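Side project, low priority. Logging it here so it doesn't get lost.
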Amino acid sequence: MTQATVWRWFASFATACALLTAPAAHAGRSCDARPLTARSIEQGMDLALRTSQALDAEHARSGARVVVLARAGQDLSKYQLRYSHLGWAYKTPEGPWRVLHKLNRCGSAEGALYRQGLGEFFLDDLWRFEAAWMVPAPALQAPLHAVLTDPARSTALHTRAYNMLSYPWATRYQQSNQWALETLASAAEPGVRSREQAQAWLRFKGYQATTLQLGALTRLGARVSSAHIAFDDHPNDKRFADRIETVTVDSAFGWLERAGLAGPVQRLSP
């Protein structure tokens, strides 16, 4: 490891310590106020370092400068889901990888976009210390990199109103994984200028959301206790049949490979 790399990771560690007192923002994890421990920082930083090394190796092999990167922030196994949150990781001219993703501030119904290092991305109260990513097709690499590194274009389809279970084919709210796929649409198709157009492109390309079976009492409890969960954007016929459709990492990964938009899922775990 070069001296410059050591200093970059030292800076990331300092950032991690600063996060101990930073305002909480999350996506794809619980909103419990659990402080970071020395062990979780060590595990998160180790995962970030190994992910960086793996992405650098991919860049050297294929020239890829963009990957879609996922983490496991909470246990979703009862819904047969492995990952909870994804973002776009891109290689900077200086060398390090950065992640652009959407987060929700705990206790609120608003979200914002964040640019973070890999260390910050993997220090967000993970349920399982595992990284997963897919490499977008070569034809998508340059368009995605251009969008992600342009502050205006990367935020063009962002909606502040946040709903963790937002309906994929509506625009009242927007959750993190939904923003990521809609941004992909804007990069892949230059004519996409609105969320409606992005969703039309996703439908055309065959994206299928995950359907969760959530009963009325579960929905009521979630709505009353969580500001970032709502169901009023879902069609009544589906909602009252306890069928809640939303964008998940697992559905995104499956679709990207089926549609030939990205290579197979690659994973790193302890």
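Brief comment: The radius of gyration is 18 Å.
Revisit when time allows.
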